[in-house]
Amino acid sequence: MEKTWRWFGRTDKITLPMLRQIGVEGIVTALHDVPLGEVWPREAIRDLREFIESYGLRWSVVESLPVTETIKYGGPDRDQQIEIYKQSLRNLAAEGIRTVCYNFMPVLDWARTDLLHPNDDGSSNLYFSYAEFAYFDIYILKRDGARQDWARFRFPAGVGQGRDVLAEVDALAREMTPQREHKLVENIVIKTQGFVSGNFREDDEAPIEKFRQFLSLYQGIDKASLRENMKYFLQAIMPVCDECDINMCVHPDDPPIEILGLPRIVRTADDIRWLLDAVPNPHNGLTFCAGSLSAGAYNDVVAMAREFAPRTHFVHLRSCHIFPNGDFTEASHLGGRADLVELCKIFRPTLPFRVDHGRTMLGDETRGYNAGYSFLGRMYAMAQMQGVLAALAHESH
To answer: What is the tens place of the pLDDT at every residue in 57-94?
Structure first.
């Protein structure tokens, strides 16, 4: 499998010479300076590709070419935005870049409540607390219907049995401080979204009000509506994908649960079957993110990898551990629910993969890296995966 690394462009504190030294072959990146909803110019794509190649690397995967909210909820300028998207695809293909990872998650790209959750060994990981996220929804965002939604929330079988999330939320409210509230907003909205060319920036002055505005766009949009909007988008771009031989690979919802009253449509095996059957073109495929999928207790990650391997174009190797109360954290790349060793056996050798959401360790937290994208933690994870791949290659001879 091709060893790739998510890199955030020339301003990334992790440089291309650093990546070449640790054995990275392909770069996963995007034009982070192009405003959301605008065409990616071919000249800018070429400039970045040539910059990457000047260090002996290749631009292997785009992550992400963002799908604007208006495409997701079916706004009045949806068709215009789809035409812009198609032109960006043509420009990427003209420069030899033909694998595009994207997501169809409304408003939030991904969500965690703690970005530096301590581990027993002194490192830290990303963490998702249902009680803290529900507190954000009910007490900070003050979303209409939030309390009723959390009253109806049920954990999947095997975790969180007997847990009263609302009681925990109200207990949190009695001890919450402005500083802790500010940290929750930073973790959920700013530090996890501001660097991914998404809806929020790190310098947004009123992120909660902006958040509410985005949520209002989805009034009346249920799971069936969002599915139809995704099908509409994919059917519209498939002729360009056929013409340019571009593989579109959707990233699963992260976390794979319904949150903030928004529908989620890429979180289970049934969801993925629907997606691949609704648009059966082989260019319509999957980013198999083992971490996102393993955060759902109902997902058999290995079985899903076997079933969907023929339509998988890109792999994220990471794993989550779910605690008995239902909360989850990023696990060691050799632990957790995902069984990354078995996944490396399943996916074909030509696929690009990247390790994802490595632990923060040995001073990573002081160096200003993007949340979830440490250097030493990801290098450690990549070394683990390289060892797995080498052992599997040895066994096959």
So the answer is: 999 999 989 999 999 999 999 999 999 999 999 999 99
Query: Does 373 participate in catalysis according to the annotation?
Result: yes
Rg of the chain over Cα atoms, rounded to whole angstroms, equals 20
Q: Please tell me what DSSP assigns to residue 347.
A: S
Strand order in the sheet with 124-128: 114-118, 124-128, 328-330, 320-322
In whole angstroms, give the CA distance from residue 37 to residue 66. 8
What is the spatial distance between Cα 114 and Cα 126, in angstroms, rounded to a whole number?
Answer: 6
Catalytic residue among 12, 327, 356, 364: 356
Residue of 85, 127, 218, 373 marked catalytic: 373
User: pLDDT (tens digit, 9 = 90+) per residue, 112-129?
Assistant: 999 999 999 999 999 999
Residue 349 pLDDT: 82
251 is catalytic: yes
For the entire predicted model, the pTM comes to 0.94
Q: pLDDT tens for residues 18-31?
A: 999 999 999 999 99
Residues 102, 117, 251, 254: which is the catalytic one? Answer: 251
Residue 197 has pLDDT above 80, yes or no: no
Q: How far apart are the first and last CA of the chain?
A: 16
DSSP per residue, 360-374: B-TTGGGTTPPTT--
Q: How far apart are CA 298 and CA 291, in angstroms?
A: 13
**Residues with Cβ < 8 Å from 257, sequence gap 6 or more?**
264, 267, 296
Which pLDDT value is given to residue 39? Answer: 98
Query: Which single residue is written with the structure tokens 């095996």?
Result: 269
Q: What are phi and psi of 207, to 5 degrees?
A: -65, -30
Identity of the residue numbered 256: P
Q: Please state whether the peptide bond connecting residue 255 to the residue before it is cis, i.e. omega within 30 degrees of 0.
A: yes
